Amino acid sequence: MNWLKDILHKIKGTSGEPPAKAEEKMSEAVLETRVAGETVSKLHHKQIQSYLDEAEPLLRNEWDRFSPKASKTGAEMLNVDCGEQAALAAALVEVIQNMDNGVANFFGTDRNSRKRRVALALLNSLLGRKLPLNEEQILTMLRWVCRGSSASSYLYPISGIVRIAEELAEEERMTEALVAGFLKFQKAFTRYAGADERRLSRRIDRAIGRTPDLPLEAGEAWTDAAIHDMSLAGKDVRDFWCSLLGHCVSATTASPSQKWMKQVEGLMEGEEGRTEFVQRMSAWLPLVNEPRTAGTKESQHVRAGTQVITDAHQDILRGLAWICGLVPGRETARLLSGLGLSAYKKMPQVGSRSVRVGNACIGALGLMGTADALGQLALLKVKLKFGGAQAAIDKALAKLAEQLGVPREELEEMSVPAYGMTGSGELVQQIGEFTAELRAISSRSTEVMWKRADGKAQKSLPAALKTEFAEDVKEFLAAKKDIEKMLPAQSERLDNLYLQRKTWPLAVWRERYCDHPLMSVLVRRLIWNFTTNGVTTPGVWLKDALVNRQGHPIELADDGSTVTLWHPLNQSADVVLGWRGFLEEWEIVQPFKQAHREVYLLTPAEEQTHVYSNRFAAHLLRQHQFNALCAARGWKNKLRLMVDDCYAPATRWLTQWGLRAEYWIEGAGTNYGTDTLESGAYRYVATDQVRFYPHDAAGVSAHAGGGGYTPNWGQAAEPLPLAEVDPLVFSEIMRDVDLFVGVASVGNDPAWLDGGRDEQQRGYWHEYGFGGLNASAQTRKAILERLVPRLKIASQCSFLDRFLLVQGKKHGYKIHLGSGNILIMPQDKYLCIVPAQGQVDKAGDKVFLPFEGDRVLSVILSKAFLLAADDKITDATILRQLK
Fold first, then answer.
1. Residue ranges of the domains in the chain?
2. Is pTM beyond 0.85 here?
3. For labelling, which of 129, 174, 244, 614 has a CA lying 20 to 30 Å from the CA of 655?
């Protein structure tokens, strides 16, 4: 580097001499410098070439990040003064441009491609420093990038050039020519913009003093609404949202940094900004759940009507979720919950719409730390089955539990919101001259009445309230919607308590369950065991008191009494039938099967097989429906693809019991495209054994195409003898598996044979659809035998083995009590009827059913009512079959 110092020394050395002598020396120095200009440039290029020859062999892999300091020459270059580094940077641009003319493939492994990689590494390092580059050098650099066919950070120093723009803006050196150059540069590197490119683009906007546009693209319902709203907004409002949404573009990390959140607070502009934010979010975020309004040019898979959220919009929504966490309130908590549910919603052959947005919503609710946020986390905990979502919720709840100083396992029970209800399932609110009264009528629905001051009531919303009290009405109806979401979620949680070995002190149970305004809607329709001084008495809520099955009040002491959920296992038939009769007498509809719950005991066949059960083997299940049921019941399962891969069995971890249960399944079929979806996922799975293992026993897996389960490593673990599994655990696990088969079996689909099946498949369909009754079907038969005599069509109905017989005006019919499939007598000709959900619901309303949730029971009743009046059927498809 002495050559450059010598030239500078000659110029500097003229000071202090006589003017004439100094002028003469200066002229000589300038002349020499002009001549040396070419020499300097040649020397730069020579030194760069030396660096390339030295550094290229040190690059282990063309994808690795290379440090120029690994080369001795590179380290020297990074140690000279900034003026010389600016000259080196300009020379490097020239060298790389020359390379580009000769490099056939920037992504290749030849020496020229590798040299370009180490040259770019040095240029990136130099541009990471503040260099005195002149305008022409900068414009040359910009033109170089713009000429490239793919201006990516892998090929060009994009972030370094953005840094130069920011320095120019800070020093007020940004000229018109530079602004024009940076605009072309911005267009070039955002041609195929990812998250990093979008963030850099916003920095360019700020540097050149341009008010950024909304970083939204039309095609999604929520972005369409935002773009429309901003087209009507004033300049201040539009600038506010351009800045805020622009900041959300940088939400590319798993969680926000303190710096990111602090910048948000500066953009929000106090209370006025927060109010504007919440109002817009209330309008936009619910629309995220709507289908796309248009596709995109970039991808043929992103079409109108799909649920795809573009990558750029996912980052923006993540940022908006984080900001919601800074604005705690009932409305923002509700918005985050709704957005989270929408984000985790599964799309066919894709999976969740946006895990990053869903996780951001959960994190934001945890950040809020309010009672409203806690309630929404409780809702998400029971509604979401995605493993990643559950992990994020557990993390948020654990953090909140630590903040509140309560045990994590109790926080879930404590966090159930009341939504303003004062009585059991009752919400009363004065709105104007009307009193709005909401009442929960089941574990899934509510009804609302609007009462005038004179006591007159109406079901429809009074027109006078829609405008004058719009906000109050909106809040009341939002609470109604929240209650209707939370009730079934909590019902599911209660149903899963059997395997959690839960026991409560009586006072705690009263507070969190029996007297809780929302939970009491469910809890007071269930049977509970009350234990005092070693004596256990089952009881249920009736007419403002706890009573036994004879209807007598139960005397309990708050001190020393404990409560558990009653189960029919180990109960005598008289006790179980007594409770069933009690529920029917008082028309108590249980939120799930309890008194009518199936009990599964070891069979002789299972005693013989000893360590496994074949009770639910050899079934053909719709894979995606089976997978959804697994998630709903707390099982871990992975969709099978027709690929060269191995899969663990469907597994339920029973941590409290130190066990795990496995249901062995395999993909069914060998023809790709016929037996699979476009994604390669099997349409169906074939079932095999149910087994139990110690919690920490070595796992097993099977190849996607079959071949049986083998140990993942080492010697196979021995399954537990079924007789050693706790009877309650065995019964509940077998009940889960029965549910999987009963709901997901192709034998339940009346139209399945229309798809053209082979002889073996048709044989299975007929065997399942009209064969023997499983435990749940036997329970269904027992219920129908008690209910049918009370129906108006009772004289047309009777029972024969596994069928409900219905005598219509035209034909007689046999309805199978397991599948709901129909045969026309006397030829036993199959009749295909697929009832609409509305018909099924109406059938359930016509008669008292002692529990909710058995759709097949409602389907059978709807078909019975339809066929009893077969002379009034108008559906052409059914009439053709009846000829």
1. 2-207, 221-231+248-414, 426-493, 496-568, 604-744, 773-882
2. no
3. 614
